[in-house]
C-alpha cells in the first residue's frame, strides 16, 4: 500500500539517464512538454510531475518565460533548493514538524511489530541509498529513502495513523526530496548513519529509542533544509 514514491518515476528515470549520459547536456533546454511527452510515451501530466521531481532534485531548472533547462554543475554545487511546492497550503516548517510528531510515533509503534524480513529490507534500502548516492543516481537514492520510511509506516499497528500518513504522504516525502540539491557528502553520510541507528533502535524493540532516533533524523534533515525544529515533541502530560 505504501510502497514506493507516488510519482511517474519511469519518465523521471529516463530523463535522468539522458542527463547522466550527456544526451541532455548541462545548460541545454529540454524539449517542449508536448514533444517530450510524445517522445517518452507518457502523458503530459506524468511528464510534468517527472520534471517537477527532477527540478526538486536539482537536475533541472525552470526559468519563467524561457522554459526548463538542465542544471549546470552538480546539484550540491548549485546550493539552491526548488520552490516549496505546497506553499499555498502549509509552510515547509509545519510539514517537518508534523513529520517529527507523526513518524516518531510510527517508529515507536512499529518497533513492536516489524519482522526480520522487514528489518533486512530496511538494511537493504539503506545500502541502496549509500550506493546510489556514490554513483550519482539521485532518483534511486531518493526512492530507497522513501521506501525505508514506507516500510516502517506499513508495519505500524495503528491503522488510523497509517491512513493519516498516507493522506499526507506527498507533502511529507517532498521534505525528503527537497534538500537533496544542498546535501553535501558529509551530510549524506550522516543521514545514512542515522538510518542505521534507526534500524538498531527498531531491532531493540525499544519504543522510546526508536521514536527519538526517528525524530532526531527528521530534525537533522530539516536543519539541512535551513529549518530549526526541536527533535522531540514535548509531552503534554
Automatic annotation (TrEMBL):
SUPFAM superfamilies: GntR ligand-binding domain-like (SSF48008), Winged helix' DNA-binding domain (SSF46785). It holds the Pfam family GntR. SMART domains: FCD, HTH_GNTR. Keywords: DNA-binding, Transcription, Transcription regulation. PROSITE patterns: HTH_GNTR. InterPro entries: GntR_C (IPR011711), TF_FadR/GntR_C (IPR008920), Tscrpt_reg_HTH_GntR (IPR000524), WH-like_DNA-bd_sf (IPR036388), WH_DNA-bd_sf (IPR036390). One of its GO terms (molecular function) is DNA binding. The keyword ATP-binding does not apply. It comes from the Bacteria. This is FadR family transcriptional regulator.
